[in-house]
Design a protein that fits this description.
heterodimer; A: mainly alpha; MetI-like fold; elongated; B: 223 residues; mainly alpha; globular
Chain lengths: 225, 223
């Protein structure tokens, strides 16, 4: 009796079948959002780390301040600031763009720190050796330092990226039609939480392979013993 | 410039909203004091269970950890708060948040502690056991203290993420800082309270961020 009620509540096949297309639609939006965030966030983080390598004092202070603030702010606060506060000064961003920008900024901050740690990990002697063989600063960075630094940063960067893409769920708060939003809408229309179960399944289906991929990357690229 | 000041740094509204936002900050602190220790203890338990050789213990723990690492926390929270009542289980917001965070955090902290325990050579357990310590004693006195020391940066980093994550409790109307700020914003039609909440987060968490980036700059080593 209890079991039947449980199934009817959380695994109601009729409701699930009805909302499956919506959840699939949400999965597509989640994937789109995640791809946008990863592309812009990692690229911007790399650019900032490269700028920091030039060691121009005032510029670096600016970067450090920006990164620290972005790391201390909860992503949901940034999303809400973009979506609910910016219209006050005449800037209207859609929920998708707010979430994309906010999570990209957060990823930028983390990626910059990780790339910078990777650049610092290349011993000073290598810089000096390359410069004394006649390579320019940019050539040294590009041909000697970066190839080693990027390889070192792959495991921590992968894990951080996975953690931040999971933040796409926060888009539901600003009405982005991703999985959680579709599931919640389904719940309130059908008055049955099965769409929520379906949403949870969708997330697990999307993210379990990614979590495993992260673990694989960690062991594959582990130079530390 | 004047519009920006008026909308984001409006002193009048700041004074009016300050008591509410500070009340929210107190709730955020209380929430952290509950969920962080719960998560750390749960995580240590999870890690210890995953060192047990019996597949009967190890595999369910593995599934538990992987499941809750793949399930985003807000989904879990909404499931607990809006889904469970349909089964007649009405959880108060605070309990739903604490439970959701416990399930989520114990798997994250668990992975960290597991990595720490695995970083201690097996010979130490064998040596401890051969001096007459029981398995539990070897874990408590030899393995866990060293394991914990090895993963301190990861523990701090995860704790920072947990503190930031408490902001999602605003979605289930728990009056923590972000919720208080949004309430104040919707009453005043002005974003200053949210900016203020953001500043308070930065103010409280900045020392932790500084500490962490110190650890991180040393963590990546070229061999």
């Amino acid at each position: 009796m209890m079991w039947a009620r449980f199934l009817d509540t959380f695994f109601n096949l009729k409701v699930m079948a009805q909302y499956l297309p919506k959840i699939l639609e949400g999965m597509l939006v989640t994937v789109q959002l995640a791809v946008c965030i990863v592309a812009t966030g990692i690229l911007a983080g790399l650019v900032l780390a490269l700028v920091r390598a030039f060691r121009i004092r005032p510029v670096n202070w600016g970067i450090i301040l920006l990164v620290d603030i972005l790391r201390a702010l909860p992503p949901l606060v940034i999303i809400i600031l973009f979506y609910f506060a910016l219209p006050g000064v005449g800037i209207r961003l859609s929920g998708f763009v707010s979430t994309w920008l906010a999570l990209s900024l957060v990823l930028t901050a983390f990626a910059e720190e990780i790339f910078w740690a990777g650049i610092l990990a290349v011993p000073r002697g290598q810089w000096e050796a390359s410069r004394s063989t006649g390579l320019t600063f940019i050539q040294t960075l590009q041909c000697v330092v970066l190839p080693q630094a990027v390889r070192l940063t792959i495991p921590p960067l992968t894990n951080r990226t996975i953690a931040i893409t999971k933040g796409t769920e926060l888009g539901a708060v600003v009405a982005v039609g991703e999985i959680l939003y579709q599931a919640q809408t389904g719940l309130s229309f059908s008055y049955n939480p099965s769409p929520l179960t379906l949403g949870a399944i969708a997330y697990v289906v999307l993210f379990v392979p990614i979590v495993y991929f992260g673990r694989w990357v960690e062991s594959r690229f582990a130079w530390r013993r | 410039m004047a519009t920006i000041l008026h909308n984001f740094f409006n002193l009048e509204i700041l004074w009016a909203a300050l008591p509410y936002v500070l009340q929210g900050l107190a709730m955020t602190l209380l929430l952290c004091l509950v969920v962080v220790p719960l998560g750390v203890v749960g995580g240590l338990g999870v890690a210890l269970c995953s060192t047990v050789r019996t597949p009967l213990v190890r595999w369910p723990i593995r599934v538990y950890v992987d499941f809750f690492r793949a399930l985003p926390p807000l989904v879990l929270l909404i499931f607990l708060y809006y889904g469970m009542p349909f089964l007649g289980v009405d959880l108060p917001a605070f309990v739903a948040v604490a439970l959701g965070f416990f399930l989520n955090n114990s798997s994250y902290y668990g992975e960290i502690f597991r990595a720490g325990i695995e970083s201690i050579p097996r010979g130490q357990t064998e040596a401890a056991r051969s001096t007459g310590l029981t398995a539990v004693q070897a874990l408590t006195y030899i393995i866990v203290p060293q394991a914990t020391r090895n993963v301190v940066p990861d523990l701090i980093s995860n704790t920072l993420e947990v503190v930031k994550l408490t902001s999602i409790a605003s979605v289930v109307a728990l009056p923590e800082m972000l919720f208080a700020a949004r309430q104040a914003q919707s009453v005043t039609y002005n974003a200053t309270p949210i900016v203020m909440a953001g500043l308070l987060y930065v103010l409280c968490l900045w020392p932790l961020v500084r500490l962490l980036s110190r650890f991180e700059h040393k963590s990546i080593v070229l061999h």
